Amino acid sequence: MEFFERPDASPGDAPSGRPLERAVLVHLELPDSLGPEDLDEFHHLVASSGVLAVAEVTGRRESPDPATFVGSGKVRELHDVVAAEDADVVLFNHALSPGQERNLERALKCRVLDRTGLILAIFAQRARTHEGRLQVELAQLRHLSTRLVRGWTHLERQKGGIGLRGPGETQLETDRRLVRERIRSIEGRLVKVRNQRAQGRRARERSEAPLISLVGYTNAGKSTLFNRLTESDVYVADQLFATLDPTLRRVRIAGIGPAILADTVGFIRHLPHRLVDAFRATLEETLGASLLLHITDASAPERDSNVDAVNEVLEEIGADTLPVLHVFNKIDLLDEAPRIERDEQGLPWRVWVSAQSGRGLALLHEAMAERVALGWVDQWVRLPVTAGGLRARLHEAGEVLDERTSEEGAMLLRVRVNRVHFQRLLRSAGLSETDVAVAPGAVPPVAGDGPASYNPSRLH
């Protein structure tokens, strides 16, 4: 897989001093295509890859041609355009079969990349961590493995020999074996990396800090919002897939306490299934989230279809059942005021903000606190005198907001704690929520009002 130069150079030169690759773009309108929106996204992909688009060839077909996808007439047109523009590569806004790709390369006398190959090239530029690079290389090799068939036709089997194999066939089998071995090696290394990541995730679960994951269509402003909420300096650029590797930061949610915010890769429509694995590093953080912040560019004309594209990917990875708070970003580009919209149950459903200017972020904090609090217990409980161990564990976790002693000597605690963690602590002490619950407004008289044994910072 050959990679494009990064798009941070002048229009004529790459950062390395070499000229940018010259690309001819190809887009056909098919009955199932998304039309202008899809073509606009293709232009963003090409710009993000760093090539110089020198020409664009469009057309319309009822169905793809089995041999060349575009048909013989359009191939001749492409051949003339490639020659006239001295193009290095032809980029298709479609998924090509291995046979179609090879036939086009023979006819056009230059490299041909389909949409999947283009996205993989961008992934290779964006991945910065060890795990991210392994994921991208794995996706590239799996894609390449389908392109090795008859890839060495200049070294094919020689005629006339009985029972002899030509060097071309041997070379092809060698390439297949090397690719398979490399894939197995990367898969083994990724298992170790994922086990390490799982250990870190279990440590966060033991701390019971809620995980809030940002998801959304690419270039919707997730990283800008992430920086605003966490006071970080995560890389931000007006590019597709500017963020590929996961980024975690600790934040404080009013009334809840510490939480973990996760920035994830942006999604696009028509994401090939084989590329979902290249997102795995960030998507694994999404699956364990207490709340998803679905970031949408409110100014985008196609914002509804972008939301649908994100929902499709979330469903594919099994994250479609997680609680979601929709964040409509970039209201600075619209005549919209910051606000919270609520659903029929009165819960925050959508928040309108501007990550760039900071308008509406206070409302977003309020909505996040309210949604995260749904999975938490905030109540008075009565513990018997024999439950001293449970009391100590609640204090160690910093989840006791107030404590008193009843006239009978029972321990009265006001706790704010993750419900799952609370139930687990109760079970370990042989108790249930029914055993310890105190009705709202029915806190019994106390033997004396001593100083509260809570961490005041958790209330702010």
Automatic annotation (TrEMBL):
Where does the record place the region Disordered?
A: 441-460
Q: What PROSITE patterns would the database entry show?
A: G_HFLX
Q: What is its main location?
A: cytoplasm
Keywords, alphabetical: Cytoplasm, GTP-binding, Hydrolase, Magnesium, Metal-binding, Nucleotide-binding
Q: Which GO terms describe its molecular function?
A: hydrolase activity
- Which InterPro entries does the protein's record reference? G_HFLX_dom, GTP-bd, GTP-bd_M, GTPase_HflX, GTPase_HflX_N, GTPase_HflX_N_sf, P-loop_NTPase
Q: Per its UniProt record, what Pfam families does this chain match?
A: GTP-bdg_M (PF16360), GTP-bdg_N (PF13167), MMR_HSR1 (PF01926)
- Is Metal-binding given among the entry's keywords? yes
Q: Where is the Hflx-type G domain?
A: 210-376
Gene3D superfamilies referenced in this protein's UniProt entry, alphabetically? 6.10.250.2860, GTPase HflX, N-terminal domain, P-loop containing nucleotide triphosphate hydrolases
Q: Where is the composition biased (Low complexity)?
A: 441-452
State the compartments where it is located.
Cytoplasm
Record's family?
A: Belongs to the TRAFAC class OBG-HflX-like GTPase superfamily. HflX GTPase family.
**Tell me, what does this protein do in biology?**
GTPase that associates with the 50S ribosomal subunit and may have a role during protein synthesis or ribosome biogenesis.
Subunit notes for this chain? Answer: Monomer. Associates with the 50S ribosomal subunit.
HAMAP family for the chain: GTPase_HflX (MF_00900)
Name of the featured protein: GTPase HflX
What species was this sequence derived from? Alcanivorax quisquiliarum
